[in-house]
Structure formats: C-alpha cells, structure tokens
C-alpha cells in the first residue's frame, strides 16, 4: 500500500483505509493474556507474568471511563499502581509509510529493555495529588498562561494563520480554559498544559521517568507490524477506536468518535499490552530531544501564538497524536508518528505518561 502525505493545509492521501480489528479485553487477567499471548510469527508477548494478579485498570468503554475517578487502585500504596510491565524486545522503530522523519531507525530492528509503563495518560486527579503533596507550581502558572485550542470563526481564519491557537492568560493545568475554569468533571481526563519539566517533576516524585521515544513506540505498537499501524484507527465495525478529529479541521468535528475535545482516559479499547489511548486524545511527552528531518509543525506551531519575545526552548519529541489530528491536516494518529514541541511551552493537547525501567 502506498501512502502519500502532503503537509501544511494539504490533504493527506491515505489510499484505501482498512478497518482495524481491535480485540476487546475481558476484565480477568486470563482473558487479557489470551488476547496478547501471541503476535507476529509466534513471538511471545512482551506483556508478561509480572502483571499476573495485579489490579490493572479496567477501562475500555464509555461507561467505564465516565465512572473512573482518575486514580488507579492502590494509588500511592503500590509504587507500580496503574502500570503494566513489558519485558522489552526488538521491534521496527518508525514507519516507511508516513512522513520523512518517521523512517525506521537503523533500517531494521531496535531493541528496548524491560520497563513498567502507565496504562493511561497521567490524569488531572493524579497530577492534583502530586501538587497537593509537594506544593509544586507548574510552568503554565509561572508563565501566566498556555496555548489553548478553540474552533475559529471564518473571520479568524481569514485574519491569521493557525487561527485555532490562542495564548490564553491564566490558562493552566488546573484552569484549562483560563481564569475561572476548574477541573470539575475533568479529574479523569489527561492532565494537559504541562511542560516537559512539569512531567518530569511528577515522574521523579514517584521515582519514575518519561519514556524514550523508542520505549513509547514499542509500547504503542504492542507487538504489531505492518500497514495497519498507519491507517486511521477504527474497530471491526468501522467506528473510530481512538479520540481524533473526524470532519474538516479546524472548523467541523463530526463527533463520530463520541468526543469533540479531550475525553476521559480509557474510553476506547486498550491495545494488546493493556495500554489505553496510545493513539489520539492527547500527545505525550518523551524524554528525547527531537532530531532528524524536521517536518513543519502540522499540528500547528503553538509557539507562533506565544508571547512576543519569548525564547523558543529545545524541541522535544511528542508521540501519539491528539484529538486534533485529522485526515486532512495532521495525520499523526499513529504509533510511529512523531512531532516536535518546545520543552517549556504548555498546550491544551499535550500530556504524558511515565515509565520505570528494570534494573540493568
């Protein structure tokens, strides 16, 4: 299958989209193990026996994600609460079907060692617990604002490029729409408007780290290879299996996936490693500096609306796409997708999850 991408307001030509078969996971561990026991040429799943009998987060449907309070079982009692263990292994790091900066590293297999990883994005509830325990003040609060998405009017679209982005004074992780807005009803959503430093501060509080780009992609691909990884995520019934943009970006979202903006974590089926929302909903910080061919900011260069005179910090790799990725603009709702984001620039479509690596 040939996939061609044209950047910056051009239509991304994906050819014929194949429906993605997404297995439904039963709550019991045995069903989860059966679903992920084998992939590609009879390999053993990286989702291993260290997960046996652990109280894994049970999500994957609208009713479950709506009921979820945002804190995994045994939160703060179990140092691995809300995480699964992956034994590591070899995988194809990158894609031959996407953008130029996604070409496979080294032309072959890349190895990652074993690690634990959060089943979901870090939620507002989890980040709030961190702030309460430590008194941490986020970068968005220090900077006095953050970059926020809104659906632009026709006049705004005619007046300026990237009209869907606005620097909102007073916007922060706990004031997601600006002054006066709160986290009421949003504690189970991914925390956003956090910088890479904020994400690292939270991770270090728990004795963890942010994933490398390779670790994140290994987890996101969940043992699979092939062209299906580069198609729009849909289940066996043709319904979107992730929170991304359907319709004409940025003015019309048809809400086919059930969510116009951020969704609570875990509203869609997990991948074969029992990880939720690796694709869509919110981009996720990694610990890696962005290197390689630099594509234009097809998620919209958020730095363009930051306060004048603000220095641009080091571009870091973010992964997974967000609720703003669409067929006609971003096309980064794929495990191999990568984007650059200034390390110190908080935005309303970027969150994170943490990892804990095995001792070498």
From TrEMBL:
Reading the lineage from the top rank, the first entry is Bacteria
What are the protein's UniProt keywords? Signal
- Gene3D superfamilies given in the database record: paralog of FGE (formylglycine-generating enzyme) (3.90.1580.10)
> What PANTHER family does this protein's entry cite?
FORMYLGLYCINE-GENERATING ENZYME, SULFATASE MODIFYING FACTOR 1, 2
Q: Where is the Sulfatase-modifying factor enzyme-like domain?
A: 81-355
| Gene Ontology molecular function terms on file | formylglycine-generating oxidase activity
- The question of whether Signal is a record keyword is answered with yes
**Which N-terminal residues, if any, form the signal peptide?**
1-34
Supply the source organism for this entry.
Paraburkholderia bryophila
What is the name of this protein?
Answer: Formylglycine-generating enzyme required for sulfatase activity
Instruction: Output the InterPro entries linked to this UniProt entry.
Output: CTDL_fold, Sulfatase_Mod_Factor_Kinase, SUMF_dom, SUMF_sf
An example of a Pfam family matching this protein is FGE-sulfatase
């Amino acid at each position: 299958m040939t996939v061609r991408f044209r950047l910056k307001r051009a239509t991304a030509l994906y050819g014929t989209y194949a429906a993605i078969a997404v297995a439904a996971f039963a709550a019991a561990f045995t069903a989860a193990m059966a679903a992920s026991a084998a992939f590609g040429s009879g390999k053993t799943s990286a989702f291993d026996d260290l997960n046996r009998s652990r109280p894994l987060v049970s999500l994957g449907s609208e009713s479950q994600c709506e009921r979820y309070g945002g804190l995994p079982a045994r939160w703060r009692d179990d140092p691995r609460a809300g995480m699964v263990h992956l034994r590591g292994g070899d995988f194809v790091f990158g894609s031959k079907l996407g953008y130029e900066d996604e070409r496979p590293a080294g032309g072959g297999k890349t190895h990652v060692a074993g690690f634990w990883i959060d089943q979901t994005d870090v939620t507002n509830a989890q980040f709030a617990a961190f702030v309460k325990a430590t008194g941490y003040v986020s970068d968005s609060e220090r900077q006095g604002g953050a970059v926020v998405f809104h659906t632009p009017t026709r006049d705004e679209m005619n007046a300026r490029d990237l009209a869907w982005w606005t620097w909102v004074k007073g916007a922060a992780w706990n004031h997601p729409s600006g002054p006066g807005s709160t986290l009421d009803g949003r504690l189970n959503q991914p925390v956003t408007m956090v910088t890479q430093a904020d994400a690292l501060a939270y991770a270090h509080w728990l004795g963890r780290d942010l994933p490398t780009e390779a670790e994140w992609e290994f987890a996101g691909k969940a043992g699979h290879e092939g062209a299906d990884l580069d198609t729009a995520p849909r289940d066996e019934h043709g319904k979107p299996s992730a929170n991304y943009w359907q319709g004409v970006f940025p003015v019309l979202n048809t809400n086919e996936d059930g969510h116009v903006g951020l969704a609570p974590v875990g509203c869609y089926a997990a991948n074969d490693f029992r990880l939720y929302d690796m694709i869509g909903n919110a981009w996720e910080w990694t610990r890696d500096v962005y290197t390689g061919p630099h594509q234009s900011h097809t998620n919209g260069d958020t730095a363009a609306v930051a306060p004048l005179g603000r220095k641009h910090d080091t571009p870091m790799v973010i992964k997974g796409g967000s609720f703003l990725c669409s067929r006609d603009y971003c096309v980064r709702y794929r495990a191999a997708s990568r984007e650059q984001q200034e390390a110190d620039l908080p935005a309303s479509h970027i969150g994170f999850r943490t990892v804990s690596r095995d001792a070498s």
